């Protein structure tokens, strides 16, 4: 059971990091379409900050899970 849980955490970490990278790639493509909506046009800097922050958190969380999975295997 512990090995299955460990593998699940590794896969989850990889997916989190991949989604963060995909979000970084997608933000510049989607942001012009979002700012076409009149209500969002004046808060574009805030939206950029929020989306990039979300991408960084996803990448950091994924890397942390991967590191915690690999850490016990590394002998000092």
Keywords:
3 helices; mainly alpha
Average of pLDDT? 89
Return the domain count. Answer: 1
Low-confidence stretches: none
Give the number of helices: 3
Largest sheet: none
The gyration radius over C-alpha positions equals 17 Å
Shape descriptor: elongated
- Helix proportion range: over 70%
Q: How large is the share of residues in beta strands?
A: under 5%
Based on secondary structure, the structural category is mainly alpha
Distance between the termini: 27 Å
- Provide the succession of SSEs: HHH
Quantity of strands, as a count: 0
Commentary on this structure:
This protein has one domain. The chain contains three helices and no strands. It is elongated, with a radius of gyration of 17 Å. The two termini are 27 Å apart. The mean pLDDT is 89.
């Amino acid at each position: 059971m512990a090995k299955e849980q460990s593998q699940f955490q590794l896969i989850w970490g990889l997916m989190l990091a991949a989604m963060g990278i995909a979000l970084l790639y997608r933000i510049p493509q989607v942001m012009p379409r979002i700012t076409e909506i009149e209500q969002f046009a004046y808060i574009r800097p805030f939206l950029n900050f929020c989306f990039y922050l979300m991408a960084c958190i996803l990448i950091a969380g994924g890397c942390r899970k991967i590191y915690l999975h690999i850490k016990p295997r590394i002998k000092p």
